[in-house]
Amino acid sequence: LKALFRPVTMVVPELLMICENMLMSEGFTLAKVLAKKMTTLYKLAKEQLSQQYHYDFGLRALKSVLVMAGTLKRNYADMPEDLVLMRALRDMNMPKFVFEDVPLFKGLIKDLFPGLDPQRVGYEDLKEKVIEYMDLNGYRHSDEDSFADQVNKIIQLYETTLTRHTTMVVGPTGAGKSVIINTLAAAIKEWTDEPVRIDIINAKMVTLHELYGLLDPVSRDWTDGLLSKIFKEANQDQIPGKPEQRWICYDGDVDAIWVEDMNSVMDDNKILTLANGDRIRLQRHCKMLFEVFDLQYASPATISRCGMVYVDPKNLGYAPYYQ
Predict the structure, then answer these.
(1) pTM of this structure
(2) Residue 70's beta-bridge partner residues?
(3) What family does the Swiss-Prot or TrEMBL record give for this protein (predicted)?
């Protein structure tokens, strides 16, 4: 029977070795000890936290934390290395956790990094602009703790977009996903003087050909789809002297039928390949956001390629919008 089949070998990546080498390349002298702590934390989180569709503790998630840790180390050269890594682990993972898992994850981090509790990176100027915008539009919650959570979630989204060019904002209807995205865009405009253009696409409302484009099999004529047209426009060169950020926001359910074709854009290749052979590169000024209820029908390959921000209604709910 064995002769009738072709054997295929699958190898699990050696996370500890990869982690240690990446920490060394980022300039950490305690790479061996810190790599052990980091991989242990991810192993425990995978085993002890609740099972959610949008959780990912794999190699890509590990890599994004290591990149952020390297950036923090360069920016805060005097800070101890374990403090730098702990801050990166906390700030990169907290945005994706549901309400019940936050204290559990904090407990795990406290066990592995005892006695450490670094301040979050403030982004005080951006936070000021966020609060101004929310006051102006009547989004301020009467409860100060809830309002602080709301502002914190917007800052978390900003932090996630710094390390990932594709971010998923996950949460039930009425949790405030659209408000968070629009508030961040408005605050960035006030903070940096760079306007943010948001193109919204509901991919489930159109067919695949209407979304990505159609190549006529007879005439070989190419007709652009909704996504391909917007993607080309968003990734055109900017006008000199007029910098602008461009966000493509996919609003609606994510499933493998339409989103798998975008995996090459979401990973480090950053290239969308169309049926006519066109290859469009995602530029530095362009980011992709997914605004989605849950990721029940998304594949792990898609989830691992994106940064995650979970908007939990238990933190906030509809109260500020209702008031």
Answers:
(1) 0.87
(2) none
(3) Belongs to the dynein heavy chain family.
Model confidence over 31-64: pLDDT tens digits?
Answer: 999 999 999 999 999 999 998 888 988 888 888 8
As a whole number of angstroms, the longest Cα–Cα distance in the chain is 72
**Burial (0-12, 13-18, 19+ Cβ within 10 Å), 316:** buried
| CA dihedral sign, ordered 76, 80, 82, 87 | negative
Helix (H, G, I), strand (E, B) or coil at 28: coil
Please report, for the chain, the start and end positions of each structural domain, with discontinuous segments joined by +.
15-112, 124-322
If phi > 0 it is left, if psi is from -120 to 50 it is alpha, else beta; for residue 250 that is: beta
Nearest to 95 by CA among 42, 170, 39: 170
**Residue whose C-alpha is closest to residue 117's, from 74, 152, 83:** 83
Cβ neighbours of residue 78 closer than 8 Å, sequence gap 6 or more: none
pLDDT in tens, 65-80: 998 899 888 888 888 8
CB atoms inside a 10 Å sphere around CB 300: 11
Can you read off the two tokens belonging to residue 177?
């996903």
Is the CATH number of domain 124-322 3.40.50.300?
Answer: yes
Q: Specify the 3-state DSSP secondary structure of 137.
A: coil
Q: String of b and e for 72-93 (b: at least 16 CB within 10 Å)?
A: bbeeeeeeebbebbbbbbbbbb
Q: Does domain 15-112 have CATH number 3.10.150.10?
A: no
